[in-house]
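Entry 14. Structure prediction run on the chain below.
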Amino acid sequence: MTQAKYKKIETTLRQRIIDHTYPLNSLLPKEIELAKEFKTSRPTINHAIHNLVQQGLLEQRKRLGTVVKRNKIQQEFTHIIQGYDQEMENKGLATRTDVLYFQKIMPTLKIQAKLKLAPSEMVFKLVRLRYADNIPVVKVITYIPASVSPDLEKVNFSTASLYTELEKRNLSVTHVVRKLEVKRASSKIAKALCIKTNDLVFYFHTHGYTNKDQIIEYSIATYRGDLNSFIIDLNR
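Output returned:
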């Protein structure tokens, strides 16, 4: 089925917002200008813009016009242990995961220390780029001791949840320790997340443990600073 023209325009405008062709807080070109550019009618342009307003990427202001904005995604994993897909779906966001790398490797000394491994032990290294509503939100590099579940290499992590797969193998992550840093994006991270080099990113280190206090995961997650906020829920 041929994609409706307004959807194609919506996709193009969304990409221009993501790659900063239309900078944050800037005015979107007028509908009549966009209609001329895309060789279509103003109602078609209006339909595309309306959808982007509903998605929180644009805001229509009286006597001013349509302004580029981005609603930050409130991430709750700082106080709740759950998979990315589940958290995003709870917020009504469509998810996608691209697996950039998945191999069994010999870890560096640093990763050996993080996972408390013997010198000869191998790990699975899993690198994923994760999206919400087709916008890249976070790049995650995860290391898992290969000895705990050798059959993990058969899993397609573009559709499967790591935490669910571990749970199936009686290796549920029941406790995590996270460390947060705020850094400047490298050129490699910037390219993956569709941001500019040196933009601010949230950089989380995570150690995941089973209920037997067995370390099962070490992850480094880099979140876009412009799209994410984090909830810290403390009780006394």
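Helices lie at 5-18, 31-38, 42-54, 84-90, 109-115, 162-168, 187-193.
Filed with the rest of this week's runs.
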